[in-house]
Amino acid sequence: MEKHFFLLAAIFIIILLTNTGILQAQGFHTVNNTLLLETTSAWNGDKINYPEGEAKITVLKIEIEPGVETGWHYHPVPSFAYILQGKLEISLEDGSKITASAGEAVAEVTNRIHNGKNIGDDTLILVVFYTGIDGSQLTILQEGE
Which helix (H) or strand (E) holds 24? Predict the structure, then answer.
């Protein structure tokens, strides 16, 4: 019983020191994490399905000036975006849309024609993670775009 008391007291002291910053001041650092996105579906509710084949992950940093649009396109592979700066509006052909701002993550639609637009006053900067397969295209523009 006495061992348990001392173990609990030691754990309490470590938590107290960590929360008060004393350990950080002594050179001990903690690792923090924030869940940005956890989902089984795209923003419109479509289920996310991985393509068959040899996996290939591609990460792009994309910058879009204010008022500029991506043009109507689709992604044949699942993709996920994290907005670093600005405000993005994504629209589907049926008129449904979402907006995402700096600090937000989006599970992009797959095999659905959509358009992205920078609706903010600053350059939109986002990082997009594509979970494709080797040899596949990441983005396909709609005819006439």
Answer: helix 22-25
Q: Could you tell me the two tokens for 48?
A: 């996310």
- Angle ∠(52,54,58) on CA atoms, nearest 5: 100
The rounded mean pLDDT for the chain is 87
Strand duo 105-107 + 124-133: pairing: unpaired
Residue 22 has φ and ψ, to the nearest 5°, of -65, -45
What is the C-alpha to C-alpha distance for residues 14 and 24, in angstroms, rounded to an integer? 12
Question: In which band, very low, low, confident or very high, does the pLDDT at 30 lie, cut at 50, 70 and 90?
Answer: confident
Examine the pLDDT at 125 and tell me if it is beyond 90: yes
Angle value at C-alpha 108, between 66 and 139, nearest 5 degrees: 75
- Determine phi and psi for 24, rounding to 5 degrees: -60, -40
Nearest to 97 by CA among 115, 110, 71, 118: 115
